[in-house]
Description:
The protein is of the alpha+beta class.
Amino acid sequence: MNVEGAELSQKVQDILSQHASEGTRLLTSDGFTSETIAVEHFADMSFSKQRYTLRIPLGDRQHGWTSNGLADAFLREHAKSYDGRHPARNIKLINLRTVTTGRRSLPSLAPTQTKNTHQQSKRGINFTGEAQMVDVLSRDSLVPGQSLEGPLVIEQIDTTIILPPVTRSTVHDIGSIIVEVARSAAPTLIRSPWP
């Protein structure tokens, strides 16, 4: 539609209101409240007989967009994008868009206080050519600030962490395990079988 005429303002207001209402309804049905929902409107506009369009931010305002107001917003955005030059042509409103966003509060990354820091079981692990029985702990049983020394196995649902002998680790405040691997006194050389 051309950006002119008295009925444009009402038509734009109706479309943006419908967009905002539908987006808000969908987010509300997903548990968001009006305080956590943000609405942003955009108009895709161009000069007539041009193929490219500019997306013009309209903010959260649905009312009061007259043809002059839309044209001014387009000309400002066009001037920013194309160094102030613009052809003397009619301006077209191609499309109206609305982005409705629901903000969630961030979950706490602090681990919950744990149950039991004792070993769950023991497991035979081969570090030096001979099986050695090592403690097995559940990841859920670790607490922030806890220090651990290998050999040790830490199990969780999706992974297993093996701490070799002379390895130290600390449980970080957010539950990550920071592992410090000891360097051996004499480096081990592995020779390639290829010349």
